[in-house]
Amino acid sequence: MRRILEFIMAGRPQAVGAILILTLLGAFIPFFWLLSGAIIALITLRMGFMQVLWVISWSAVLLSIVSLGLFGTSSRLGLVGTFAASAGFGLAQWLPVAVFAWPLRRWASWSFVMQAIGVAGMVAVLLVQVFNPDMTAVWQRFLDEALGGSMQRFGMDAAQARIAIDSIAPYFTGILATLIATGISFSLILGRYWQSVLYNPGGFAEEFTRWKASSAFSGLMLALSVAAIVLHQSLLMQMMLVGLVPFFFQSLGLAHALVKLYNMSTGWLVGLYVLLVFMTLQMAALLTAIGLVDGFMDIRRRLAKR
């Protein structure tokens, strides 16, 4: 892994090539999109925002050219529209990672960056609702076209598929924002880890296991969560989903910190991630709740004093 990272960081052409390959592979396995984002994070953290803008720009242009060669021109968008859509996809994927990696490079504060991701996600959900109050209908049409046929192939009849889509649509903006915020966070974490591997061995573990959200942000999210659950209001529920993303990652850092504090076997962490893979929703909810509690209690500090 180290040699691959050293090759990528040896020059702009290597970085652009790696990002392009991973992005194209992401069309088949979306996880590769997160890896391309991690390279963007690594370049930003090591070389700064202006350098990564050059890499992003050329990556977007080459992605459009290669996409046209591989997949052709969309009959609906035309040549220029297809080129712009491919470039826009790349920019939308990479720019947010660079934007949030820049303050991490400048201030090395995971607390600030993760809270900024949560706040940005909540603001985005709010703005979408303000400028298009009828997003539920938009998502109903989109999900019906994208998933309706697949649901029926998996054994649902038309009525069941309709019920499922109608139950998801009111919250889909928040779900999408949550997935994007999670992806950005993952790319930042992996990029920071790669930076530690190359230039600061052991530094990532030290900083990531120590950060926690502020009490003020924790209080805000607790109040929002209670209001969303009690009122069962769609907008509040969506803002809650994306706003709680930082606490999920905070709890992962807490888990690593506790394993280190008590000299526990890494098997505990392996078990945690295995459960997270096979019981994703349940474990994500549990870890997020633990992270929210940690925002108030600072569990690391309390246990370290014992």
Structural class: mainly alpha
Reading the helices and strands in chain order gives HHHHHHHHHHHHHHHH
Oligomer: single chain
Note the main sheet. none
Number of helices: 16
State the end-to-end CA separation: 39 Å
Please tell me the total number of domains.
2
Describe this protein's structure.
- There is one protein chain.
- This protein is an all-alpha fold and 306 residues long.
- The chain has two domains: 1-107, no CATH class; 108-306, no CATH class.
- Helices cover 84% and strands 0% of the residues.
- The chain has 16 helices and no strands.
- Helix 5 (78-107) runs antiparallel to helix 6 (110-131), helix 5 (78-107) crosses helix 9 (172-199) and helix 6 (110-131) packs antiparallel against helix 12.
- The longest helix is centred in the N-terminal third of the chain and has 30 residues, at 78-107.
- It is globular and about 65 Å long.
- The mean pLDDT is 92.
Topology:
Blueprint: H1 2-8, H2 12-25, H3 31-47, H4 49-71, H5 78-107, H6 110-131, H7 135-153, H8 158-168, H9 172-199, H10 203-208, H11 215-231, H12 234-243, H13 245-261, H14 267-278, H15 280-297, H16 299-304
Helix pairs in contact: 2-3, 2-4, 3-4, 3-5, 3-9, 4-5, 5-6, 5-9, 6-9, 6-12, 7-8, 9-12, 11-12, 11-15, 13-15, 14-15
